[in-house]
């Protein structure tokens, strides 16, 4: 008897629970609907467009065309190696700088940390614009060189090459690595460092055995975020204005806007989305691990 | 303190400055310097002038500034509303459903902005929603791009919100709607303003999707800066860039003032 | 208003955290739920408030089944450990919150907020924000806020554990006074601190591992605990394994005269003696052992003595010349002060 009552109550409890969660689903519906209409549905249209060549019908012809083109393969390669190299650079540089700010603080270290935050709120293309003045053909560095040596041309001519993009991306995205690192470092118990120091460990050893393991999750999370952002970066490449540097986002833009080749643009877009979303999924998994 | 020897510390700081200054401080200073100059062919810019700013604060540039401010304000408010709604609704969902919702709402971060621009262009260049050629398509694309950030930061704040407040309110007889309006939203206010500031800054600097979408009568500042540098007008472009940075910082500063007043603890 | 748990079971993800609790709090009674963390005491309180749903069983308030009622329709006052004062509202707004939520008239709100703040001695702080108050003051505001809605039931979840020791005893006296002033309000008081429970409660329900272990007046539980867990958790006790004999028990080969009523001869059992009821020196029920440790506690000395293989604690009035470690001493206790419990040793 008591068992039966208990069972009946359990069933009722479940029914109530599902009714409550039905209400929660209902409340989540409007924003999801907006997202579906203005973001997911357009993406689906892009995928559909990528299977519809201008000649009509539905086929994988646009894919075959794009994959066969030298420009696409070049852009894919440039995008990937630029993103990988930028990420590596950001990780090394970000780790070093964050290390100094957090553990060898100097007067003004706080202000520097805040400056990093401000830096993040500026658009990326400003960096390229600035580099034009620093390393451009008549910029600061070359101007100084020609002024000193009397030569007709300065030695810094890399801005229009992928190296210019690389420098700009490392500059712009390093703060994205520093921020999670500084957050992770602030959580690190300084007593651990003191204990390690009192046990006779020297600084490089402490960095390797105490700080680096603690920083790994933040490094992984920051690194994969930067990797995705580099894969998607457009402003820096556009401002560089170099014909030799074409990345996937740049190719999407030029195919769609300059050549009006929408199926082709959509194919490149699909490829770019697949790479980025795949990596971003990885980032989410990594950062969730890091948070746990 | 990690490094105890004074010499080693100075050496580290020197390395830090050598890396930090040219990489991070220099670019901003250079743009600032160039905005007041007419030439730059040696170490320092030359030909000091205010003409760049005179042209950067009137006519086309002034209109671009208004455009950018309106776009950013509209997009961040819309994004904040949608993102907050999704974050609050997500908190009431089960674990698995919440994970799906979160994944959906961060997707725009992962998708290249250029592709968001392309997809919006493809989708809204045809009836029933013909937005192409209007300002609304720019605002829409910006909203899509920054909603992810609004959702992420509000969602994190909702998770951190101590359930004790809601429960105390409920035990005192407040219905769920009253709990939302009088307890949860006021307590979230600091995070909401922070999210609004972030969205605003991102929208102010958005270039990728905008390049795909902007109609001639709705040219935001980044596009204008690009157009200027593209035709070689680097110095007046710098002045516009400084105006962009100043406007962004001003709004961020105002927002952080609101936030300080709104944080009660 | 009475509170009744009718075989309430609560489970999270298949883990039973409260196992068919049956308990009734009479109108106007103060019931303490006492137990270690994880014993299910807070879960029981939250089931009354409506924040956890029983998997089975019913919760009744004043005879009415509220199991399916959402928290906001139960009309219960609740005070939690971290106070949960709304940080964006002033003290008076905090106290008025429940009344406003109910749509009370403005004049009534003003009057009742005044009363509640007066009663908790916080009237002078009405226009302050919570962050400007000390921990003790915040706790008073939390109590005023709960009382302002004139609840029939007041739930207190470890209300004093965030306060330091001195404030705690002051607030304890304060709560006792409030209860005298509001004789009709039933209180369910969750705590892990036996002093709070012994001081404040009319009855104590001792909980452990999701189950109710014992329930009775503080005096009953202290004098005649039902089992070893209750004995050690309420007051602390020497729990010595013994074998029941003809007219006494056998403790490590020594005959000890105690009341063995209800125990079967030859069975194993636990002898419970409170440390302060054991004397030093020769006497009835004498045990001898070696001093292991001696701690000075101001008014008393606690002497740890190894008797056979058992460690026996005795709290004796401060000794002028305490025995040195390693010396042999005699201990004694009155047969009436020892309680024979069923076998089983509880927590420390």
TrEMBL record, chain A:
CDD domains given in the database record: TM_PBP2
GO CC annotation terms, alphabetical: plasma membrane
Annotated Pfam families: BPD_transp_1
Compartments it resides in: Cell membrane
Domain ABC transmembrane type-1: 76-283
An individual GO BP term: 2-aminoethylphosphonate transport
Annotated membrane topology: Multi-pass membrane protein
Record keywords, A-Z: Cell membrane, Membrane, Transmembrane, Transmembrane helix, Transport
TM stretches of this protein: 28-47, 80-106, 118-138, 158-178, 215-242, 262-283
Keyword Membrane set for record: yes
PANTHER family with a match to the protein in the record: INNER MEMBRANE ABC TRANSPORTER PERMEASE PROTEIN YDCU-RELATED (PTHR42929:SF1), INNER MEMBRANE ABC TRANSPORTER PERMEASE PROTEIN YDCU-RELATED-RELATED (PTHR42929)
Family membership noted in the UniProt record: Belongs to the binding-protein-dependent transport system permease family. CysTW subfamily.
Name used for this protein in its record: 2-aminoethylphosphonate ABC transporter permease subunit
Lineage start: Bacteria, Bacillati, Actinomycetota, Actinomycetes, Kitasatosporales
From TrEMBL, chain C:
One GO location term (cellular component): ATP-binding cassette (ABC) transporter complex
Highest taxon, organism lineage: Bacteria
Gene Ontology terms for molecular function: ABC-type quaternary ammonium compound transporting activity; ATP binding; ATP hydrolysis activity
Start and end residues of each ABC transporter domain: 3-234
Pfam families, alphabetized: ABC_tran, TOBE_2
This protein's UniProt keywords: ATP-binding, Nucleotide-binding, Transport
Cited SMART domains: AAA
Transmembrane regions: none
Full protein name: ABC-type quaternary amine transporter
Natural source organism: Streptomyces misionensis
